[in-house]
Design a protein that fits this description.
heterotrimer, A mainly alpha (329), B mainly alpha (287), C alpha/beta (391), A: mainly alpha, ABC transporter involved in vitamin B12 uptake, BtuC, globular, B: 287 residues, mainly alpha, 12 helices, 74% helix
């Protein structure tokens, strides 16, 4: 039994941050669509965007324990910002992305003051209410957002001055994948740091954390703002790669979908959002081809099955299987 | 102006009463067992469709179909509780959300398959249609009926809660489940019965709602948010809280639309966020 | 973690579409529609109209077989609609795009139609500017300005001078409000007040009360189908608004079959302007309704006729080009097409590529025990006015 030393948590964090061979294999596999399925790159780019969005929700839900029913507010805000900048004449993708990220981050920062003060059902309902309020405002401000018809006139310039966004989605997927990877690296770094440990502590027992010197409210505000920035980036990516923005980017439907995706994949496991996004969106795409009308039936059944047989999401269930196997070995 | 203000108050209150009947079951079961049943409105939808089938298909009178709506929703909820929900009482909140959202999805698809995607028509008996004039004001007959039914239900619930032994057990289980178990109360049975009752009321609410807000295959989704708002604002486990929250929300929604129509749905969400920030546990919530 | 890789591999494998060999004698049509969610019923009716046409006219045109590839967007989701359009063109090799229940989806797919030079048929979406987004697009449904400006002009010609407007606060509502008010005012009428309902509003009593306070001689309303028309009708009845004293002007959605059934007698006397009613006893329509009933067990509506006439336009264009599916050839063939539809005479404007048709003015009356729209006036060859104005 190793004696508890000051470097114990440090060693733990260092072990976590080392790259597992399977992780490397996973990221290499994300390059496969270019070769295997070149006609599905548009779908792949939208999966990558959704994965980034789910990852941003994981930061607050899986790690800080904040259940949000209004996270699409930041996604949509980033989306509209990026769209409007392009519409008003500045179609450069990367700078547009950064501006949208900053805008979403500012919104996240402001709302984080409210978020940090509440818990449980009140928090869930407040996030829901704020999301709905923003969606209503966007609908009313039709002169700015285009209302129900969506934003028109979004035209993007070439990415890096070289790559046009085309019908096949090659540029779109490359762009989304790179941004997803960078976002992932950031999240990974964050989680496997003392800050990340503090967040997990807050999730487990928010009342006790100040007693050991961790400033709960400040931590929550910080992670919430970061999550908002990431969600805003995902939204901006969608606006730029599809050259459309509409009210559904802010809707309750989108907030609920990303929540389902994250829980499906497994919250608090870094890869949960990505795995959930891949499975949910591929399944939805397949079902809408086979049996468009009854998509809800099959996805509902899938969700129920996952909950009953894979609690803590797909990754959670797999982790449990691996543990069982190790014990049996 | 006072006449129209009064009319708005009345209509808002009636709408609030509808929300109350739909939500009270969820409030009590959430407060008691902390089980997040997002499929609550699926039971409401079931009640609505049962009424539609009984009145349009079998020719039953509307009033006679209401107990059918209640009973069918209650019975089906018992099956779900026994079969599925029981397994997840100890599970995480997220898993409960996922399971019950899955049930909502399935119920919406089944409703679309069986009844189609159209608006369900309902023919009310003549004595429930139109409006009456009382003291110079005009009141919709159906809304009067709705308010009457809701008040009777509220009175019955409160009486049961305060005056019967079972009610005392329910109150004990809501206040402190472990203690109640320790005192020998069969909390599982109490919950099963309360859950059935709450879902039955949802079914009744769904049947009553057809005339006011319509019924289609997506009902379980559409009214979920409104019900959650009532439950959160009223406070978990509180009948009085649900009643007050539903009334406030119904009236402020109506008043907002009358006096500030440009604000639209803004007002109700704003009121909800403000009320929750002021009282995070809800108006009468305990935890 | 190994399973993640396996799982991902499976997911990727699922994505691999079988390269579809484009058989020589097939015309592939990508039908982008909404078949699930809250707009499902309208989308299903469009599809029913398409199927009815193909039942009546067979699935072969100009020696080629018609193959439909259906996609369900699930609601207003332009990113998804655009992706479907791209995939249909790139992966499935469709020759044309059709369908489009909702405006945002049509606008997004228009980009793809323009870029890929594919013929596009809008079978429902009624917002005026859609048609300008791709030079390969035609529309076979209706546009809101087409109906509402006509209605506004008609109203003043028939003695209504002061009107109060009530519309739902979303795109089509704004369009209708703007169109009606403009035409009404241009013809000398006065708008005495306007109000907008929130979207998905279940209860109208507050708004109807406001209208009653103003006591106008005419009220113009525009609300989407579904639960709202009945709720509004009942609100009018409850608040004692008499349709013989106050003329209430609605759209075809407000007076659709299910809406009238749910409204009951509260709907009697409602006036509306629209391009199609299933009760029309024009022989072509009687036949259409009969086949539709047999196939789908219900009555068609204006969504169905949009789908039906959309297929007709496709078939006629293909006949003209002799099966050539090139975008330029098809759009040239489609411009100026004229035909008798179950709705009446209609054509595709050669300049704007938009639909030109007859607008009927109807009143809700009780005929044979049921509530129906009885047309008593009509305006023929109505074009969408926005293009003429340079919109």
């Amino acid at each position: 039994m190793p004696s508890a030393t000051l470097s114990e948590p440090q060693r733990h964090l260092e072990a976590q941050i080392r790259w597992q061979p399977l992780e490397i294999a996973f990221w290499l596999a994300t390059l496969l669509p270019f070769v295997l399925t070149p006609n599905h790159l548009v779908l792949a780019s939208q999966i990558a965007i959704t994965a980034l969005f789910a990852l941003s929700l994981d930061l607050i839900l899986g790690y800080a324990g904040i259940i949000s029913l209004g996270h699409a507010a930041y996604f949509g805000f980033g989306s509209y910002t990026a769209g409007l900048i392009a519409k008003w004449g500045w179609g450069e993708p990367l700078t547009g992305l950064l501006i949208a990220a900053a805008a979403a981050g500012a919104l996240g920062y402001v709302t984080s003051f409210i978020i940090a003060r509440f818990r449980h059902l009140a928090l869930i309902m407040i996030t829901l209410g704020l999301g709905l309020l923003l969606a209503e405002a966007a609908n009313s401000a039709g002169w700015l957002t285009g209302g129900a018809d969506g934003l028109q006139g979004v035209r993007m310039w070439k990415l890096l001055g070289l790559f046009q966004f085309d019908l096949y989605g090659t540029t779109a997927y490359t762009y989304s994948l790179v941004v997803l990877f960078l976002g992932f690296l950031l999240a990974r770094r964050l989680i496997n740091s003392p800050f990340g440990l503090a967040l997990r502590g807050i999730r487990e027992n928010a009342v006790r954390m100040p007693a050991i010197g961790a400033a709960s409210a400040a931590h929550i505000r910080k992670v919430y703002t970061i999550a908002a920035v990431m969600a805003g980036i995902a939204g901006a990516l969608l606006a730029q790669t599809t050259e459309t923005v509409s009210l559904d980017t802010l809707s309750f439907q989108r907030s609920a979908d990303v929540l389902v995706i994250l829980i499906l994949g497994g919250a608090g496991r870094l890869y949960g959002g990505i795995v959930g996004a891949i499975i949910y969106m591929v399944a939805r795409d397949q079902f809408s081809h086979i049996n468009p009308q009854y998509w809800y039936f099959w996805i509902g059944t899938l969700l129920i099955a996952v909950v009953l047989f894979l609690p803590n999401g797909i990754l959670g269930g797999m982790a449990r299987l691996v543990r069982l196997e190790r014990r049996a070995a | 102006m006072i006449d129209s203000a009064f009319g708005v108050l009345f209509d808002g209150f009636a709408y609030g009463m509808l929300l109350f009947v739909l939500s009270v079951g969820l409030s009590v079961t959430l407060g008691m067992m902390n089980f997040i049943n997002l499929a609550h409105c699926s039971f409401a939808m079931l009640g609505g469709f049962v009424t539609v089938s009984l009145t349009n298909g079998l020719g039953w009178p509307f009033l006679a179909s209401l107990p059918g709506a209640f009973a069918s929703a209650a019975l089906v909820s018992v099956a779900f509780e026994r079969g599925l929900y029981r397994r997840l009482y100890g599970a995480s909140e997220l898993d409960q959300c996922l399971l019950t959202i899955g049930i909502v999805f399935v119920s919406v698809a089944v409703a679309a398959y069986v009844y189609g995607t159209i608006q369900q028509p309902l023919s009310l008996p003549a004595y429930l249609r139109g409006s009456v004039s009382i003291l110079g004001h005009s009141f919709g007959v159906y809304r009067l009926f709705l308010i009457g039914v809701s008040i009777v239900i509220t009175a019955a619930l409160v009486a049961a809660l305060e005056l019967t032994r079972f009610g005392a057990q329910v109150r004990a289980a809501v206040d402190n489940q472990r203690m109640a178990r320790g005192l020998g109360i069969d909390v599982d049975r109490v919950f099963a019965v309360t859950f059935a009752l709450g879902s039955g009321l949802a079914g009744l609410g769904g049947a009553l709602a057809i005339e006011i807000v319509g019924l289609d295959h997506a009902f379980a989704f559409t009214y979920l948010i409104s019900v959650l708002i009532v439950v959160a604002v009223g406070g978990l486990g509180s009948i009085g809280g649900s009643f007050l929250a539903a009334s406030v929300l119904g009236i402020s929604d109506m008043a907002g639309k009358y006096y500030f129509p440009e604000l639209g749905a803004f007002l109700i969400y704003f009121v909800m966020v403000a009320l929750l920030m002021w009282r995070p546990l809800g108006l009468f919530g305990k935890r | 973690m190994k399973r993640i890789r396996v799982g991902l591999g499976c997911a990727v494998a699922l994505l691999v579409g079988v390269a579809s060999a484009h058989a020589q004698g097939t015309v592939k049509i990508g039908l982008i529609n909404v078949l699930s969610g809250q707009f499902a019923d309208a989308g299903i009716q469009i599809d029913n109209g398409v199927k009815t046409y193909m039942k009546q006219h067979g699935d072969t045109v100009a020696g080629k077989k018609i193959e439909l590839i259906r996609r369900d967007v699930g609601g207003p989701a332009p990113d998804v609609a655009k992706r479907f359009a791209q995939e249909l063109v790139v992966r499935d090799g469709v020759d044309m795009l059709a369908g489009f229940l909702l405006t945002p989806n049509a606008l997004a797919a228009a980009d793809v139609s323009a870029q890929a030079k594919k013929f596009m048929v809008v079978m429902n979406a009624a917002t005026s500017i859609i048609i300008t987004k791709s030079p390969y697009m035609i529309r076979t449904s209706v546009t809101l300005p087409q109906v509402m400006e006509t209605f506004g002009t008609w109203a003043t010609k028939n003695g209504l001078k002061k009107c109060y407007t009530m519309v739902t606060d979303y795109g089509p509502g704004h369009d209708s409000e703007a169109a009606f008010q403009r035409a009404f005012k241009e013809a000398g009428g006065e708008i005495v007040g306007a109000v907008r309902f929130p979207v998905a509003n279940p209860d109208f009593s507050a708004f109807v009360q406001r209208a009653k306070d103003v006591n106008p001689e005419c009220i113009f309303i525009f609300i989407p189908g579904g639960a709202q028309p009945a709720a509004l009708g009942k609100a009018f009845a409850e608040r004692g608004v008499d349709f013989t004293k106050t003329k209430v002007l609605g759209s075809g959605e407000t007076t659709a079959e299910q809406a009238l059934k749910a409204m009951g007698d509260a709907g009697l006397g409602l006036l509306s302007a629209w391009h199609y009613d299933y009760k029309s006893n024009v022989p072509l329509n009687v036949e259409f309704v009969k086949v539709f009933n047999e196939m789908h067990g219900r009555n068609p509506d204006f969504f169905s006729i949009g789908g039906y006439d959309g297929m007709h336009a496709i078939y006629e264009a293909l006949k003209k080009t002799n099966g050539n599916t090139d975008g330029d050839a098809l759009i040239a063939a489609a411009k100026g097409l004229k035909w008798e539809s179950p709705r009446g005479p209609m054509s595709i404007d050669p300049d704007t590529r938009d639909v030109v048709q007859t607008i009927y003015i109807r009143r809700v009356e009780k005929v044979g025990g049921e509530l129906v729209n009885v047309p008593f006036d009509k305006i023929e060859n109505v074009k969408d006015p926005s293009r003429a104005r340079g919109g």
